[in-house]
Amino acid sequence: APLKINILTLFPETFPGPLGTSLAGKALSEGKWSLETVDIRTFARDKHRTVDDSPFGGGAGMVMRPDVVDAAIDAVWPRRGPLIYLTPRGKVLDQAMVRRYAAEPELTLLCGRYEGVDQRVLDAWDIEEVSIGDFILSGGEMATLVLLDAVIRLLPGVMGNSESGEDESFERGLLEYPLYTRPADWQGRVVPEVLLSGHHAKVAAWRRQQAEEITRQRRPDLWSGYAALKKNDFNKG
Ligand code: SAM
Hints:
Layout: E1 3-9, H1 22-29, E2 33-39, E3 52-53, E4 63-64, H2 66-76, E5 83-92, H3 95-102, E6 106-111, H4 119-124, E7 128-131, H5 140-152, E8 185-186, E9 189-190, H6 200-218, H7 220-236
Parallel strand pairs: 1-2, 1-6, 5-6, 5-7
Antiparallel strand pairs: 3-4, 8-9
The protein binds S-adenosylmethionine.
């Protein structure tokens, strides 16, 4: 069944945005995923359509009101699949989480604005908090686009070559090896000999060695996890 995506936002015109183009856009028009955006502002109760107020305890900025956000969630969330709030305080998104989301029947994403959402509504709905990295965006919409782009490309039939998902960075706990295409000699820079050899086992070994080297140099955090796994495999024989 196609993945149903619900987005709660103060800026519904953001969507589908870039997800309406390229592979994701084609998949959307083919019905491989569907999108419902909910304008949180329509759940404001006063005549000024107020969605935010100043923080109790003082301080800068505004906070999204729990009653308004609650009404928006209540109107859309079918209790099928996770309810996700994008926030710099959340668990940092990685490919394992992306794969888990891609297997859900439905995803509901809440985009924050201002300083964020009143804590009580997050507690009341037991919302999953997800960050896209250690930096501050001005709203959750861009973070939602990032998360969804990563999820949608994993949906069945979305990526042209289904294998091109498995060989990539992170799927094996390693960064990707260097890529080359024609011309074989570009401004005197030549493609590594082994890639022209047609020898599949040698190509695979070279790529593995390159991927390991790049990961070791650039991402000691990934490398220690990979090295531990590799050692484990070796011990098992
Ligand atoms: N006051 C918050 C703090 O210090 O953590 C930052 C609020 S930010 C200006 C406004 C909204 O942008 C947040 O509620 C969240 O929805 C979204 N946002 C900002 N950075 C994000 C990130 N790294 N990952 C996911 N969402 C983010």
